[in-house]
């Protein structure tokens, strides 16, 4: 039983002592006390089905026993920095991680977060090419330090920091974009940006395969091959941000970029990689990785024994429990059931995504695609009261983000859709 402070007391403390920039979901924010696989529990022991944990890091399920064991055992033995000593955890995990990547993506640099991973990737690309210009997609999120905030392309995540040399390409968004699902047409904008906005050479192109914070926007088919081809011709490197779409989440593939049949020069990852433990990584080729030897470069806790032991346990669980297959089967079923809600309710404008990374966009007018922001918040609150947690995103805040732990079952999917159905009916 929980004998700690109430949600109201925690909220009051938070208001007094924590940054006013911190935000939360729900009119009455949830005090989560315990977690077990796809469930979260509040201070009263009430159980919630967590269909948003995937985004907040959890891929194998909250407190998965194998991952907890790996963390506890390594913590008891040693937790330290690996910058000046050897330790098997970091090397074992690097070996296992690269075995999951195609081509010559064989060298890892560990960080503590997705922002750090993307900052490093952008710097590597600039060092390797000697160029400064970066192209990223409108509606993208890549982090909130100076460089990654520049590459991020939604004004609500951007402060007025220096963002030199960043160009934002047309978003290949099949629902809201001007060219529908024709990926190659959108990619022409990348070529145009190179020709009209740069010297003709660029450092890098960075993108998610399925935009997460942007509202589960799966890039139009054919986009990445065409965009990568323009970037390569301009001497740039292609960076795949797999912070959300990686680690088996899409079901059909282990990495999001694989859904478009491309092989990037650099892959960045975080969140799911550690199942809740702060961990990020940049993976690239031996040749490109050489640029970091020009100076001394380190990250004190990047690749520390505890986090990398957790990472290795996560990979083993994904394999052992066939979580990719589960994401595919349960995700396809869930998407099908959610798509049926579109036939039932005018307010459901679009259902999209892949595997256990699904978006449901609410609009008050299907023709004009007017964002139904208030309705989105209302349904989320209702669903929470029914015991189901989902996320929201998109530039207009009108897209449900459904990204549960990969151990989600068909029964969970049914419960989620029934709760959404009931809440939509009551709108
Ligand atoms: N890239 C993507 C696609 C993300 O969604 C996020 C975080 N939501 C980041 C990078 C940044 O990761 P972090 O918050 O760990 O810095």
From TrEMBL:
Keywords: Aminotransferase, Photorespiration, Pyridoxal phosphate, Transferase. It comes from the Eukaryota. The keyword Lipoprotein does not apply. It catalyses: glyoxylate + L-alanine = glycine + pyruvate. It holds the Pfam family Aminotran_3. This is alanine--glyoxylate transaminase. One of its GO terms (biological process) is photorespiration. Its cofactor is pyridoxal 5'-phosphate. Signal peptide: none annotated. SUPFAM superfamilies: PLP-dependent transferases. Its EC number is 2.6.1.44. It is an enzyme of class 2 (transferase). GO terms for molecular function: alanine-glyoxylate transaminase activity; pyridoxal phosphate binding. One of its GO terms (cellular component) is mitochondrion. Belongs to the class-III pyridoxal-phosphate-dependent aminotransferase family.
